[in-house]
């Protein structure tokens, strides 16, 4: 994408050049987050986000795949919405895991679909604005816009279904890997779980007797996040 930038500037595609710069910055966000907060997104999620930006910016706009390849736009809408939905699912599941919010698994799935559609709707608004302000033709009528929104819904639905099945049937260690990186930012839930695990592994002779423990500790209140 960086190498494509001078080519587009030479061709006079200044609007697309701005989009390229924004896309490169966006692709670096996971690394910036890791440096600032010492949080690493799951590799799979990082890869999917960067690949989505690359397929849209370099392949779709730069190499003109939107015009050359039939249904490329529709397939990318499904894929992009699935990635956005996955990011939303990870964030909300982590908030639930770290006890910041308490949501049922179906509601997390519902939020995932809704968030994916919301981001798709914002994308369509941006395309509409670009077409009217700069005389572009990113939208090809009402039917094209509606199919894009339907594909956004499908992408979010696929992610929600896979995410719910993953959380329901995966083992606890696998689910912890999903929530742990962002959990270090959102709250103390992960640290609380580690403390409980260490207490469980202690030899019984080293464990404090219930009679010598304060009531708040017996009831687990001291282990609750503040």
Offer a quick outline of the entry:
The chain is an all-alpha fold.
Strand-helix topology:
Elements: H1 4-10, H2 14-27, H3 29-37, H4 43-62, H5 65-68, H6 72-97, H7 105-134, H8 142-169, H9 172-186, H10 189-201, H11 215-218
Helix pairs in contact: 1-2, 2-4, 4-6, 6-7, 6-8, 6-9, 7-8
Q: If you had to describe this structure to a student in words, what would you say it looks like?
A:
This protein is an all-alpha fold. It folds into three domains: 66 residues, no CATH class; 118 residues, no CATH class; 35 residues, no CATH class. It is built from eleven helices and no strands. It starts with a helix and ends in an 8-residue tail after the last helix. The C terminus is likely disordered.
Specify the overall morphology.
Answer: globular
**In total, how many domains does the architecture comprise?**
3
Q: Profile the largest sheet.
A: none
Our estimate of the beta-strand percent is under 5%
- Please identify the oligomeric state: single chain
Mean pLDDT: 77
Helix/sheet category: mainly alpha
Helix content class: over 70%
- Unreliable runs, pLDDT <50, ≥5 residues? 185-189, 220-226
Radius of gyration: 23 Å
Number of beta strands: 0
């Amino acid at each position: 994408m960086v190498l494509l930038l001078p080519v587009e500037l030479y061709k006079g595609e200044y609007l697309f050049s701005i989009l390229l710069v924004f896309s490169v910055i966006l692709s670096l966000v996971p690394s910036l987050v890791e440096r600032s907060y010492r949080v690493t997104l799951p590799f799979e999620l990082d890869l999917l986000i960067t690949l989505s930006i690359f397929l849209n910016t370099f392949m779709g706009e730069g190499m003109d795949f939107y015009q050359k390849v039939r249904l490329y736009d529709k397939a990318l809408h499904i894929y992009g919405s699935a990635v956005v939905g996955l990011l939303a699912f990870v964030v909300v599941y982590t908030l639930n895991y770290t006890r910041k919010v308490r949501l049922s698994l179906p509601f997390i799935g519902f939020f995932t679909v809704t968030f994916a559609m919301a981001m798709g709707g914002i994308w369509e608004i941006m395309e509409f604005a670009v077409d009217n302000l700069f005389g572009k033709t990113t939208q090809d009528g009402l039917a094209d816009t509606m199919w894009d929104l339907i594909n956004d819904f499908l992408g979010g639905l696929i992610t929600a279904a896979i995410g719910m099945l993953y959380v329901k049937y995966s083992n606890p260690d696998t689910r912890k890997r999903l929530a742990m990186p962002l959990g270090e930012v959102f709250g103390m839930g992960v640290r609380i779980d580690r403390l409980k695990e260490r207490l469980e592994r202690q030899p019984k002779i080293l464990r404090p007797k219930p009679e010598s423990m304060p009531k708040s500790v017996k009831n687990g209140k001291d282990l609750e996040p503040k």
